[in-house]
Amino acid sequence: MKTSQFFLLIFLPFSIIVLFLFYDAIKPKKKLPIFQPAMVNYDLVDSNLQHVKRYHRISSFSLKNQNGETVTEKNYENKIYVADFFFTTCPGICIDMTRNMLKIQKKTLDNPNIMLLSFSVTPKIDSVAQLKKYALEKGIKDSKWNLLTGDKKQIYRLARESYFVVKEGQGINSMIHTENFVLIDPDKRIRGFYDGTNDQEIEELMDDIITLKKEYFP
């Protein structure tokens, strides 16, 4: 009797561990989609790209950050990052967007492979000095999060042809930015869109960042 009890005490936990490892091995791993222009709302995509179904990448850029430093796509090479479009004087959705970006900053602060990136849609108002003031007021960490300003045509082109986050406004090079956060992988591909004002979608974004970390930095 004692022998059988001893056997059960040893064998049962061992069996549970083996079953767990087996299940974990065969369980399908979560894989994030790779978004192409044809998969995105046409209102947010430049007309030249609306039917493109593969090979989309974020294009090159060169803009100034809150410290007056030139930031290009090379600063985000081999990084996972979250991008959005905003402006510092926005009285509406930008308040919640910044609050949620700060949550992501806090949770990823010690991981140099994860970055944040915000483009101003009112670059004439959002000078380097204005961006620096905003960064200091909000607690934005320079090493983690760049706020970018510069040529409006370049920013508009990025929004419509790379990140797909703004609608066309009235007049040449005018734009209406959305609340979207965009998750970009180290290969410069879009892996997710999220409502930057929605706490539940921010939690989903954080989970997807973890998924990408496992994919690229196991």
Structural summary, described in words:
By secondary structure, the protein is of the alpha/beta class. The chain has one domain: Glutaredoxin (3-Layer(aba) Sandwich), CATH 3.40.30.10. It is built from five helices and nine strands. It has a five-stranded mixed β-sheet, sandwiched between helices. It has a two-stranded antiparallel sheet with strand order 1-2. A two-stranded antiparallel sheet has the order 6-7. The N and C termini lie far apart (47 Å). Mean pLDDT is 89; it is low at 18-25.
Brief rundown of the structure:
This protein is α/β, with parallel strands linked by helices.
Can you give keywords for this protein?
globular; five-stranded mixed beta sheet; single chain; 5 helices; alpha/beta
CATH class annotation: Alpha Beta
Q: What fold name stands as the CATH topology?
A: Glutaredoxin
Instruction: Specify the structural class.
Output: alpha/beta
At CATH's second level, what is the architecture? 3-Layer(aba) Sandwich
Broad shape: globular
Measured as a percent range, the helix fraction is 25-40%
Please name the fourth-level CATH homologous superfamily. Glutaredoxin
- What profile does the largest beta sheet have? 5 strands, mixed
Distance between the termini: 47 Å
Number of domains: 1
* Strand order in the sheet with the most strands: 5-4-3-8-9
Tally of DSSP β-strands: 9
Catalogue the unreliable spans. 18-25
